[in-house]
Amino acid sequence: MTSEAAATTQPEAPVKPSQSGWRLVMANLRQPKVLVMLLLGFSSGIPIYLVGNTLGYWMRENAIELSTIGFLSWVGLAYSLKFLWAPLVDKTNAPLFGRWLGRRRGWMLLSQLVAAAALVGMALVQPREGQLVLAGVVLDQLLVFGALALVVAVASATQDIVIDAWRIESADNSEQQGLLTSTSALGYRAALLVTDSLILIFAAHIGWSMSYEVMAALLGVGVVAALAAREPKPQAAPVAVVADHGPLGVSDAMVVRWLLAGVIGVAWLVYALMVGIRDDLSVSWTNAPWLALPPLLLWWLTRWPTGPVAEATWSRPLARPVLRTRDAVIEPFAAFFRQHGRWALIMLLAISLYRLPDFVLGPMANPFYADLGIDKETVGYVRGTFGLVATILGIAAAGLSAMRFGAFATLLAGAVLGPGSNLAFSYLALHGADAGVFTAVMAIDNFCSGFAGVALIAYMSSLISAGYTATQYALLSSFYALPGKVLKGFSGATIEHLEAGRGLLEAYSLFFVGTALIGLPALLLCLVLAMRKPDGDPVAGAVRG
User: Fold this and answer.
1) 428 falls within a domain
2) How far is CA 269 from each of CA 52, 93, 266, 278, 326, rounded to the nearest angstrom?
3) CA nearest neighbour of 495 among 63, 66, 64
4) Residues 6+ apart with CB under 8 A from 320
5) Are 20 and 164 in contact (CB under 8 A)?
6) What is the CA radius of gyration of the chain?
7) pTM of the prediction?
8) Of 70, 75, 79, 163, which is closest to residue 119 (Cα–Cα)?
9) Do 144 and 134 meet the contact criterion of CB atoms below 8 Å apart?
10) Does 33 fall in a domain?
């Protein structure tokens, strides 16, 4: 099991319950909200692998090229970019259901129904090369399938946003918050077991399409939870950073440029996905300028003028929400740089590169098993038994290491174990489809991934500033996942390039070695951070354990 899913929705470290007695714990366990949280956590974990690593297995069995599988994994960027539309979910009611169920429960139900419908659509369309006729319009079948996967990812990310908000607002105190967080994580892990392991066994017996329909039905667990949950009391709005009256410091021209940048950004993303999925990244003199120039244009359109600007007039209603969003997103990063000074950039680079080997390898793991000749039942059984036990042991080992040696020492160990486990895949590619070797590789990978994932979470949690806990953690978790999710789209094309002049399994082996080597920069950055003087900083002090 990779760390991608866990990292996409992993909440901040729970607060330990106070030692006031077991009666308080038992009283909290009997509350209905605990069961609701367990069901919501399960619903939150269902979609992520169905549009990620598990999907790659289905596509490879349908003879889809590795490059296409890699590019389609970009739909997972929705989980890293969800903070962009989180303010909309936080401040507005959901269409259709908001007035009936309330803001939180309304968004829950809407996102669950949309995700379930899109999963059924994926089951009906199926990942195949060819054309599809819908309402008399001829469409590329694979593009329609990819669009449905993107809908699932966006709806699932929206569900994560609102479930986290419900969890935070429903807790009566910090002890209960810790209990709800742990309960959510338990439900989430159970869902990952279903979509990463059991679904392979289902697919071997009833086929992929029906298996995806079963997964869509399992989202009904979240629907039941949303209907059974109580809408939390409305939270007092924080003091607005941007005043409702007075100068805003932006001009009408700046607002127009920002809106234009949004349109160009969406168009560029759609075009890039089409080039990747439909044209197998056949970058030519025709499409290269359209891929390279928009990022520069976006930078020019969104830059902040250096001199005075004329005050906005007609665009003031549009400017205020944009500025509030900017303050909500940018200010936590500004506080991070103020707190850590010149070390902040090195910390961010280390975080963004730390799990890069795991992200780049992720989309190719299941296609690799298919090409290796290991049947789905074996993969599902090993993942659900030996892999699960190894993951739990890795998580426990990282937790004990953090308590005994400190968060930073654990981070250094994870920087070695995480990329190092990729070498086991390289050995498996050369050795062949041996059940014993495959089991050993799964155990090594799951232990190391579990250890490295907890190590990074503990380190990021130690960097959070008081007053920005939720926002900074969400932004740091998005920041660390974004580079890997972008680069993993090229993983399939890389293997196809390596295959020229050699066998496919040999190309896989070289690719896995390469993914291990790209973990070296993160290790070097961690060693540089280890030389940081404490200066009263708790993270630096953790190096000394």
Assistant:
1) yes
2) 19, 28, 5, 14, 21
3) 66
4) 242, 244, 248
5) no
6) 24
7) 0.64
8) 75
9) yes
10) yes
Q: Would 353 be classed as within a structural domain?
A: yes
Provide the domain limits for residue 25. Answer: 1-242
Split at pLDDT 50, 70, 90, the class of 452 is confident
Using one digit for the tens of pLDDT, what is the confidence trace for 354-385? 988 988 888 888 889 888 888 888 888 888 88
Quickly list DSSP for 430-462. HH-S-HHHHHHHHHHHHHHHHHHHHHHHHHHHH
- Asked if residues 23 and 472 have their Cβ atoms less than 8 Å apart, the reply is no
Q: Are 442 and 383 in contact (CB under 8 A)?
A: yes
In the beta sheet, which residues pair with residue 134?
Answer: 137
The total domain count for the chain is 3
- Regarding whether 508 and 369 lie in a shared domain, the answer is yes
Q: What is the pLDDT of residues 259-302, one digit of tens each?
A: 888 788 777 777 766 665 555 445 556 666 766 787 788 778 87
Question: Among 19-23, 390-394, 398-402, which stretch is predicted with the lowest mean pLDDT?
Answer: 19-23
Question: Which pairs from 435-442 meet CB under 8 Å and 24+ separation?
Answer: 435/374, 435/378, 435/382, 438/374, 438/378, 438/382, 439/382, 439/386, 442/382, 442/383, 442/386, 442/387, 442/390
**Residue whose C-alpha is closest to residue 34's, from 177, 130, 231:** 177
> In the listed set 242, 258, 283, which residue is the last one of a domain according to the structure?
242
Do 356 and 505 share a structural domain?
yes
Of the listed ranges 119-123, 238-242, 373-377, the one predicted with least confidence: 238-242
